[in-house]
């Protein structure tokens, strides 16, 4: 089979219940919570589109139909805004007018991220593909270049998996999948991995480099998921499946977030509030006003 030259397909898991963001997520997906002027998942999709990914499969669950509605064109709304002269607001709907093809399938029982990715096997076929978590925004000064670099590294290296990593504080390693680079690796850009550990204690963490919500896989991941045992909660962890790839002799690589790039994991209210503030302050239309307001509020404390 000829070597794949580019990647067009991406899987976006959005089936999580978002319980740590209740009551805000009782009737809406956490991926639809606004950060600045856009919902979380729109930032993710725009990143994918900018990287040239044109076929997006959402792995959804119950109460996630708002995501499908958000990316559907709305002719009635467009007509109403056009008749009322709301041309500036029409511009805000331009994200629905793309060549991207959206697909949806449901993970009826929440059995972990590995199980969610397994739902994409028919969609993917024999192609390498990306996975982007729908509740994590990666903010980059130059937009799509990080994901493009990860794709290029993956295809050039012949890896079965290439993941993005970020450095975290040692005391926070128990929150993440943590990677172990091969001995002597230069971890400043891209490097091979020797092992991965799901949520290790700080004293057992092999590094401070945490998996950061973006992956590229060959189809070999599906067999690895099938051979992965559920954890004590009955869930299939994607990190465990990637670890199995290593044990089977497959190459697994990591690409590090670069200076100026940051991951926002919208997983709890603290991280959500911080993300909203950062994006509001950086907004090209309202950022100045928000900054002035915060300066006045800071003087009250």
How would you describe this structure to a colleague?
Strand 2 (34-35) and strand 3 form a beta hairpin. The N and C termini lie far apart (65 Å). It is built from 11 helices and 13 strands. Helix 8 packs across helix 9 (238-247) and helix 10 (269-282) crosses helix 11 (287-298). 33% of the residues lie in helices and 23% in strands. The longest helix has 14 residues, at 269-282. It folds into 2 domains: 9-267, Alpha-Beta Complex (Spore Coat Polysaccharide Biosynthesis Protein SpsA, Chain A); 268-301, no CATH class. The model has no long low-confidence stretch (mean pLDDT 91). By secondary structure, the protein is α/β, with parallel strands linked by helices.
Strand order of the largest sheet: 5-4-1-6-11-8-12-10-9
CATH superfamily of the largest domain: Spore Coat Polysaccharide Biosynthesis Protein SpsA, Chain A
- Structural class given helices, strands, pairing? alpha/beta
Q: In CATH, what is the class of the largest domain?
A: Alpha Beta
Return the domain count.
Answer: 2
From the alpha carbons, calculate the radius of gyration and give it in angstroms: 20 Å
Could you tell me the mean pLDDT? Answer: 91
The helix/strand series, from N terminus to C terminus, equals: EEEHEHHHEHHEEHEEEEHHEEHH
CATH topological fold name of the largest domain: Spore Coat Polysaccharide Biosynthesis Protein SpsA, Chain A
